[in-house]
Amino acid sequence: MRELTYIARRTVEWREAPDPRLQSDGQAIVAPVAATSCDVDSSILAGHGFIDPPFALGHECVARVVETGDAVTTVAAGDLVVVPWSINCGTCERCRAGLTAHCTAVPYMAMYGAPIGGTWGGLFSDLVRVPYADAMLVPLPAGLDPVAMASASDNWSLAWRLVAPHLKARPGARVLVVARGSIGLYVCDIARALGASDVLYVDPDPEHRALARAFGAATAETLDPISQGYDIAVEATGRVDQLALAVKSLAPEGICESAGNHFLPGELPLLDMYLTGVTLRIARDNVRAHIPDALELAASGKVAPEKVVSHVIDWEDLPTALPEKHLKPVFVRTDD
């Protein structure tokens, strides 16, 4: 089989690898049918990653099950499934608590798409081994388009977690989104669908702002701190200066969720945060716990994740198209 391999800044290529094989009766082999890049992939391709190439890329996809071990009960060959980005067993204490990104059955930070916590391959591959099929794979609900939901492995389900639980606890809350890509746009869609009274989306990209307006959000190119302006803030830029502006705009006891990958240090307005009583979470996402709820919302018809898909591109064009700058390209296979 082939796996798409990152070899240098803005350079990827197909490389041959052995076909994955079942190594236990609880495993599955899947074939991605709709895979997409996330903000981490974009950072890696731009040369901002912290791991030296070469390594297999990709950690967001909907796949078709090709083969299962005899002990697998939740999926069968032919099923369409969401493949979460992190490797998790589903039975250790942390997994049972929903902390699937911190599973103790595998090396810390085990994931697809980067050789962290072992080498698990990437989801831009012709075939992928899933080591804990019952725990990891989530059947795609009937009627949902794999292209629209290619990001359910990470960004779509992460966006649900960033805002949905907070809006349930604070109905009608005001939401600020400071972003640079798909996560923030998904948040806008979800926040409006779940009853946010006001959504402001901040992004220098005019096309992104236009899409946010289509989701019912007000938009701005830049942000001046709005004193006590918002109950919930979501930062997805990876820039500490933008995170600082977001927390400065929170109302008393406001909540800030940071989904940015902060590779560079910076300063936060800690005194302002202390006086306001800010709750700040910066965390890698335990996405497997949220995928079912995020898919349920997608299936409700109240949201339109397909609008964030910027390009639909043939699987064979991955080496040339992935390094290009697209908001949310989805690469599809039609050979199955």
Distance between the termini: 14 Å
CATH homologous superfamily (4th level) name of the largest domain: Medium-chain alcohol dehydrogenases, catalytic domain
At CATH level 3, the topology of the largest domain is Quinone Oxidoreductase, Chain A, domain 1
Low-confidence stretches: none
- Secondary-structure element pattern, one letter each: EEEHEEEHEHEHEHEHEEHEHEHEHE
Roughly what fraction of the amino acids lie in strands?
15-25%
Q: Tell me the count of domains.
A: 2
Query: What is the CATH class designation of the largest domain?
Result: Alpha Beta
The radius of gyration is 19 Å
Reported CATH architecture of the largest domain: Alpha-Beta Complex
Number of helices: 10
Strands, total number: 16
Give short descriptive properties of this protein.
25% strand; 6-stranded parallel beta sheet; 2 domains; 336 residues; NAD(P)-bd_dom_sf; oxidoreductase; alpha/beta; GroES-like_sf; Quinone Oxidoreductase, Chain A, domain 1; ADH-like_N; Rossmann fold
Describe the protein in words.
The mean pLDDT is 95. It is globular and about 55 Å long. It contains ten helices and 16 strands. Helix 6 links the parallel strand 10 and strand 11. It is α/β, with parallel strands linked by helices and 336 residues long. Helix 4 (155-169) packs parallel to helix 5 (182-193) and helix 4 crosses helix 9 (291-299). The protein has two domains: 2-154 and 286-332, Medium-chain alcohol dehydrogenases, catalytic domain (Quinone Oxidoreductase, Chain A, domain 1), CATH 3.90.180; 155-282, Rossmann fold, CATH 3.40.50.720. The longest helix is centred in the middle third of the chain and has 15 residues, at 155-169. The strands form three sheets. Strands 3, 5, 6, 7, 8, 15 and 16 form a seven-stranded mixed sheet that branches. It has a six-stranded parallel sheet with strand order 11-10-9-12-13-14, with helices on both faces. A three-stranded antiparallel sheet has the order 2-1-4. Pfam families: ADH_N, ADH_zinc_N.
